[in-house]
Amino acid sequence: MPAKDIYHDTVKRALIKDGWTIMALVLMLFVGLLSFACQNQTISNSTNQTNSTNSNASTQPTSQITAPQTVKFTSAEKVEIVGTFYESPKANSPAVLLLHQWGSDRHSYEMLAKRLQAKGFGVLAIDGRGFGDSNKATDGKTVAPARTDEAVKAMKADVDNAFQFLAKQKNVDANRVGIVGASYGSSLAIIYSAENPKVKAVALLSPGLNYFGNMPTESAVKNYSDRPLLLVAAEDDKESAETVKKLKEVDAKSETQIYEKGGHGTGLFAAKVGLEDLLEQFLMKSL
Asked: Residues 6 or more apart from 126 whose CB is under 8 A from it?
């Protein structure tokens, strides 16, 4: 073959080879672009779905913790009992009535009440008659604290009215209402609960065997039967610690906690012994 023909044949073969190479490169580029476009569309769809979900979530109604409300109701001898109600953010929730100790008021439970509300409880803390804002009758007469038999009877009526008031509140399950009481408030709590089977659970802080000489608790614990009961005291509050041990003998199924130190009643909260945790766990389990 002449040199000229050999040259032309070589060039032709090279062009054909290069042509196939270019076509292969173009095809690879096309596949790559197609893959990128598909990935981009998937990411876009995913982002749109996420944004749509977030948008829907933001428009869904959420449970809100409402501010505490001051409430009032008329009790025995037309005394106006004042309390603070912490509404549960959820329907059909358990609820707790809080009874303070002698010389104190409902605000001694403020931190516990807010904590329980945040956990889904409805909570009512009241001022006992003669204390805090529960110091007037509807006719304007001043009401002073008293420890007579008549006064104790009236206190029990106050607890009953408070319990009934709480059980009827929005979002409260009337079948899951408990009581926490401190010192003389604990005596009121167990004496009242022994007579009212609707009380689901009771916690007694620094209880006594017979405060005022007319508030016996041993018989009340016995009559309270097999419902959940928590007994709490501190060793540096010797009388209450001994009472917890004695009441444990009356009701072997009751739960007890005796701290080494902590003082009396709601003073245990200030001692930072973990009482809030204990009460929360007991109430969540019992109610």
From this structure: 81, 82, 83, 97, 98, 99, 106, 134, 158, 162
Looking at residue 13, its pLDDT comes to 52
SS3 182: strand
Please answer whether residues 269 and 111 qualify as being in contact, where contact means their C-beta atoms are separated by less than 8 angstroms: yes
Confidence of residue 31 (pLDDT cuts 50, 70, 90): very low
Q: Measured between alpha carbons, how far is 26 from 21 in angstroms, rounded to an integer?
A: 9
Q: pTM value?
A: 0.79
Query: What separation in angstroms does the CA of 155 have from each of 167, 208, 231?
Result: 18, 17, 21
**What's the length of the chain?**
287
| CA distance linking residue 69 with residue 87, whole number of Å | 8
Tokens of 157: 């009526």
Neighbouring-strand partners of residue 80: 74
The closest alpha carbon to 87, from 129, 54, 124, belongs to 124
pLDDT digits over 41-70, tens only? Answer: 443 444 444 343 333 333 333 458 999 999
- Mean pLDDT (the chain, rounded): 85
Residues 6+ apart with CB under 8 A from 236: 260, 261, 262, 263
- Burial pattern 33-68, b for ≥16 Cβ within 10 A else e, equals eeeeeeeeeeeeeeeeeeeeeeeeeeeeeeeeeeeb
CB 243 within 8 A of CB 209: yes
Q: Tokens 């038999």, residue? A: 149
Angle at 278 between CA 272 and CA 279, to 5 degrees: 105
pLDDT tens digits, residue range 211-264?
999 999 999 999 999 999 999 999 999 999 999 999 999 999 999 999 999 999
Q: Which residue has the higher pLDDT, 32 or 89?
A: 89
